[in-house]
């Protein structure tokens, strides 16, 4: 069989301590998974079923540069713990969910906030705000076999040396195992899936020339320049 044109490349992430690459299948994102962020976005922080949106695998960027996108004047940073799956399935039990995790990374869910606000007002999907090119800067994956499954620890982001976001993984409303379990009831998960688990309060605008530094204790450090 011949292709009508060359097939798209497979997005991959490096794995700490090995020359192997992690092939990325899908990117799921959890919305409003920290109570303080829910409040700052004008929502009730009481625990409710998690909701999800997606980015595209080719939105990943590993170069350390985030090109300021078109069609917006208000791009926000959102620092997040990223979960990388080694096993998939449907209706995964929460108590068994961590057995499906390959490792973890530090990621940014860059968001065209003005376009998101417009979509919310009209009751439309968020893709134009979330799934644009280069919207997911991310670090290498660190295997769970090396660090375990982080459930607590500082998650921070600074812009030009000024702290913007500062929280703790323990503040997640839905924990990693619960997120995987709930998501597997909606989609059939598979090896190569990434899950961005939400962001703490302090999200804000970035501008060309800004230097972003995100860190999650025990997981890694992400440095990004807005260009």
TrEMBL record:
UniProt KW Hydrolase keyword: yes
One Pfam family named in its UniProt record: FAA_hydrolase
Keyword terms, alphabetized: Hydrolase, Metal-binding
InterPro entries from the UniProt entry: Fumarylacetoacetase-like_C, Fumarylacetoacetase_C_sf
GO MF: hydrolase activity
Residues covered by the Fumarylacetoacetase-like C-terminal domain: 27-227
Protein name (database record): Fumarylacetoacetate hydrolase family protein
UniProt source species: Jiella sonneratiae
Lineage: Bacteria, Pseudomonadati, Pseudomonadota, Alphaproteobacteria, Hyphomicrobiales
